[in-house]
Amino acid sequence: MVARRAQSCQSPTPNGVEGPGTDWKGELARAFRDLPSLLGALGLEPSDCPGLDPDTQGFRFLVPRGFAALMKPGDPTDPLLRQVLPLMAERVPAVGFLLDPVGDGAAMRVPGLIQKYQGRALLMAHGACAVHCRYCFRRHFPYGDLGGNDPRVRGALAAIAADATLTEVILSGGDPLMLDDIALGTLIWRLEDIPHLRRLRIHTRLPVVLPERVTADLCRMLGRLRFSPILVIHANHPRELGPSAARALARLRASGVTLLNQSVLLRGVNTCADALADLSESLFACGVLPYYLHQLDPVQGAAHFQVSDAEALTLLEALRARLPGYLVPRLVREITGEAAKHPL
User: Fold this and answer.
1) What percent of the chain has pLDDT over 70?
2) pTM for this structure?
């Protein structure tokens, strides 16, 4: 399986329907926005999914059709489906699981600008995502309290420009690639005008779940920056790296973008050494280095995904035994108030 995926990653086909000319906004508009439609497309009935929560109003349901096409029809335990499947377990209170599990609120310098670590700050470029993952650590984040996008970004840029200790800006959200190429380019060029910034990092799930977003214009823009751009994708399972994602990643890499991946260790999704090793191999075949394997951020509603530290460390040792060091992600946890990610 790895060898076949490696071949597809290394041999992009620019004329495919997922190529640079595809209308990514149109693809997003076609996304599944209700659970019955997705289950029907997969040949599943609600009764096939024990513990299903039919009411997703508390955390809106959104799954792109291309991502859904990578799921195995008829399998309610499919690891991609499990990431987006709303369960009644989300309603069960769990000790230590919070609305703000990583202290974003306390680290907010100005609306939309978070600084937790020395020398770098996170700018919330957009409040929306292209997929709603049930374990998302910002699923309860009060994006509406940040105010309008334009004044928020102006305030964040002013704060960054006034702080010469900052050398790196991380664009996050939501997902920053939910901005179109013009809006994203305008934001990045304004950051380029701040002389003390050296690096730009973009955290995004779109090349995986909505690869049509990786347009020719986006690749050209990232390839012409003063910065050395770093794009951190988010894939948790090797089957997320389908042919469309592989082509999108190949285009980004050809533009000179450094590609890293971060995953979350999730019960029922990737708590298997084979899956994690296959993910690392598949990422590398696509020009992406494994970066972080996160222990689950304890966000309210996601306790059913939790994996113990003992099990996580056993999985890490299994990866070390079978992969070269550069393919073994760092197992970490984010702890509010610490100066860096906490290694396990």
Assistant:
1) 94
2) 0.92
